[in-house]
Amino acid sequence: MKINNIHPIYRDEIYNDVSLIFSHQKILAVWALDCAERVLSIFEEKYPNDPRPREALEAGRAWVRGEIKVGEARIAAFSSHAAARAAAGDPPASFAARAVGHAAATSHTSGHAIHAAEYAVKAVFPEQREEERAWQYRHLLSLTRQPDTAGGDPDPDIA
Protein backbone atom coordinates (compact mmCIF):
# COMPACT_ATOMS: atom_id res chain seq x y z
CA MET A 1 0.00 0.00 0.00
CA LYS A 2 1.34 3.42 -0.88
CA ILE A 3 1.50 6.08 1.79
CA ASN A 4 -0.80 8.23 -0.36
CA ASN A 5 -3.62 5.76 0.30
CA ILE A 6 -3.38 6.28 4.06
CA HIS A 7 -5.50 8.93 5.74
CA PRO A 8 -3.75 12.35 5.67
CA ILE A 9 -3.39 12.44 9.45
CA TYR A 10 -0.98 9.50 9.17
CA ARG A 11 1.19 10.77 6.34
CA ASP A 12 3.70 12.20 8.73
CA GLU A 13 7.06 10.57 9.13
CA ILE A 14 6.30 8.22 12.02
CA TYR A 15 3.58 6.35 10.12
CA ASN A 16 5.62 5.65 6.99
CA ASP A 17 6.68 2.39 8.65
CA VAL A 18 3.10 1.10 8.54
CA SER A 19 3.10 0.93 4.75
CA LEU A 20 6.23 -1.20 4.84
CA ILE A 21 4.64 -3.99 6.85
CA PHE A 22 1.09 -4.20 5.49
CA SER A 23 1.71 -7.79 4.49
CA HIS A 24 2.19 -8.79 8.11
CA GLN A 25 -1.52 -8.98 8.80
CA LYS A 26 -1.47 -10.71 12.19
CA ILE A 27 1.13 -8.30 13.55
CA LEU A 28 -1.00 -5.42 12.34
CA ALA A 29 -4.10 -7.02 13.86
CA VAL A 30 -2.38 -7.28 17.26
CA TRP A 31 -1.26 -3.65 16.96
CA ALA A 32 -4.73 -2.46 15.94
CA LEU A 33 -6.39 -4.46 18.71
CA ASP A 34 -3.96 -3.07 21.28
CA CYS A 35 -4.59 0.48 20.05
CA ALA A 36 -8.35 -0.04 20.23
CA GLU A 37 -8.24 -1.69 23.64
CA ARG A 38 -6.57 1.40 25.08
CA VAL A 39 -9.73 3.43 24.34
CA LEU A 40 -12.45 0.80 24.67
CA SER A 41 -13.18 1.90 28.25
CA ILE A 42 -14.42 5.24 26.85
CA PHE A 43 -17.27 3.36 25.17
CA GLU A 44 -17.83 0.90 28.01
CA GLU A 45 -18.13 3.63 30.65
CA LYS A 46 -20.94 5.29 28.70
CA TYR A 47 -22.61 2.12 27.42
CA PRO A 48 -21.93 -0.59 30.01
CA ASN A 49 -24.79 -2.79 28.75
CA ASP A 50 -23.57 -2.91 25.15
CA PRO A 51 -21.06 -5.76 24.81
CA ARG A 52 -20.57 -5.51 21.02
CA PRO A 53 -17.23 -3.67 20.94
CA ARG A 54 -15.75 -5.89 23.69
CA GLU A 55 -16.97 -8.97 21.81
CA ALA A 56 -15.38 -7.65 18.61
CA LEU A 57 -12.08 -7.10 20.42
CA GLU A 58 -12.23 -10.66 21.74
CA ALA A 59 -13.10 -11.98 18.27
CA GLY A 60 -10.12 -10.15 16.76
CA ARG A 61 -7.82 -11.68 19.33
CA ALA A 62 -9.38 -15.12 18.76
CA TRP A 63 -8.69 -14.74 15.01
CA VAL A 64 -5.04 -13.88 15.74
CA ARG A 65 -4.76 -17.06 17.84
CA GLY A 66 -6.37 -19.10 15.03
CA GLU A 67 -9.45 -19.95 17.07
CA ILE A 68 -12.02 -18.47 14.70
CA LYS A 69 -12.29 -17.81 10.98
CA VAL A 70 -12.19 -14.41 9.29
CA GLY A 71 -15.95 -14.42 8.72
CA GLU A 72 -16.66 -14.64 12.44
CA ALA A 73 -14.32 -11.76 13.20
CA ARG A 74 -15.92 -9.68 10.43
CA ILE A 75 -19.39 -10.23 11.85
CA ALA A 76 -18.14 -9.03 15.25
CA ALA A 77 -16.50 -6.02 13.56
CA PHE A 78 -19.79 -5.09 11.89
CA SER A 79 -21.50 -5.32 15.28
CA SER A 80 -18.97 -2.96 16.81
CA HIS A 81 -19.62 -0.49 14.00
CA ALA A 82 -23.35 -0.79 14.72
CA ALA A 83 -22.58 0.07 18.35
CA ALA A 84 -20.62 3.08 17.10
CA ARG A 85 -23.62 4.25 15.08
CA ALA A 86 -25.84 3.83 18.16
CA ALA A 87 -23.42 6.04 20.10
CA ALA A 88 -23.24 8.70 17.38
CA GLY A 89 -24.32 11.41 19.84
CA ASP A 90 -21.18 10.78 21.87
CA PRO A 91 -18.22 11.11 19.48
CA PRO A 92 -15.49 9.77 21.80
CA ALA A 93 -17.51 6.64 22.59
CA SER A 94 -18.46 6.23 18.95
CA PHE A 95 -14.82 6.61 17.87
CA ALA A 96 -13.75 4.01 20.44
CA ALA A 97 -16.28 1.51 19.08
CA ARG A 98 -15.14 2.29 15.53
CA ALA A 99 -11.52 1.70 16.57
CA VAL A 100 -12.48 -1.75 17.80
CA GLY A 101 -14.52 -2.47 14.68
CA HIS A 102 -11.60 -1.66 12.42
CA ALA A 103 -9.21 -3.60 14.63
CA ALA A 104 -11.37 -6.73 14.37
CA ALA A 105 -11.79 -6.13 10.63
CA THR A 106 -8.01 -6.29 10.22
CA SER A 107 -8.62 -10.04 10.11
CA HIS A 108 -10.25 -9.44 6.72
CA THR A 109 -7.78 -6.96 5.32
CA SER A 110 -4.73 -5.34 6.87
CA GLY A 111 -5.76 -1.88 5.69
CA HIS A 112 -8.20 -1.64 8.58
CA ALA A 113 -5.34 -1.46 11.10
CA ILE A 114 -4.47 2.15 10.34
CA HIS A 115 -8.13 3.13 10.70
CA ALA A 116 -8.28 1.45 14.10
CA ALA A 117 -5.32 3.55 15.20
CA GLU A 118 -6.84 6.69 13.71
CA TYR A 119 -10.14 6.22 15.53
CA ALA A 120 -8.34 5.42 18.78
CA VAL A 121 -6.56 8.78 18.53
CA LYS A 122 -9.85 10.54 17.79
CA ALA A 123 -11.43 8.95 20.88
CA VAL A 124 -9.03 10.57 23.36
CA PHE A 125 -9.01 14.19 24.48
CA PRO A 126 -7.26 16.51 22.00
CA GLU A 127 -4.43 17.20 24.43
CA GLN A 128 -3.74 13.43 24.63
CA ARG A 129 -3.62 12.77 20.90
CA GLU A 130 0.06 13.44 20.28
CA GLU A 131 1.08 11.09 23.09
CA GLU A 132 -1.40 8.46 21.87
CA ARG A 133 0.11 8.58 18.37
CA ALA A 134 3.58 8.33 19.86
CA TRP A 135 2.55 5.28 21.91
CA GLN A 136 1.05 3.68 18.81
CA TYR A 137 4.27 4.15 16.90
CA ARG A 138 6.47 2.84 19.71
CA HIS A 139 4.18 -0.14 20.11
CA LEU A 140 4.25 -0.89 16.38
CA LEU A 141 8.03 -0.82 16.49
CA SER A 142 8.07 -3.15 19.49
CA LEU A 143 5.91 -5.66 17.60
CA THR A 144 8.04 -5.55 14.46
CA ARG A 145 11.58 -5.40 15.84
CA GLN A 146 13.75 -8.48 15.86
CA PRO A 147 14.98 -9.60 19.29
CA ASP A 148 18.37 -8.25 20.29
CA THR A 149 20.70 -11.21 19.81
CA ALA A 150 23.66 -9.31 21.24
CA GLY A 151 22.18 -9.53 24.73
CA GLY A 152 21.58 -5.81 25.15
CA ASP A 153 18.70 -4.44 27.16
CA PRO A 154 15.62 -3.50 25.15
CA ASP A 155 14.76 0.16 24.89
CA PRO A 156 12.33 0.81 27.81
CA ASP A 157 10.60 3.57 25.82
CA ILE A 158 9.47 1.05 23.21
CA ALA A 159 7.70 -1.49 25.42
Pattern of helices and strands? HHHHHHH
Our Rg estimate from Cα atoms comes to 15 Å
N- and C-termini, Cα separation: 27 Å
- Structure classification: mainly alpha
Largest sheet: none
DSSP strand tally: 0
**Which stretches of 5+ consecutive residues score pLDDT under 50?**
149-153
Give the amount of beta strand, in percent. under 5%
Give me the number of helical elements. 7
Shape: flat
What is the mean predicted local confidence, pLDDT?
86
How would you classify the quaternary structure? Answer: single chain
Helix content: 55-70%
Report what the structure shows.
- This protein is mainly α and 159 residues long.
- The protein is built from 7 helices and no strands.
- Helix 3 runs antiparallel to helix 4, helix 3 runs parallel beside helix 5 and helix 5 packs antiparallel against helix 6.
- The radius of gyration is 15 Å and the shape is flat.
- About 3% of the residues have low confidence.
Descriptive terms for the model:
mainly alpha
SSE arrangement:
Elements: H1 16-20, H2 25-46, H3 52-64, H4 70-86, H5 91-105, H6 112-123, H7 129-144
Helix pairs in contact: 2-3, 2-5, 2-6, 2-7, 3-4, 3-5, 4-5, 5-6, 6-7
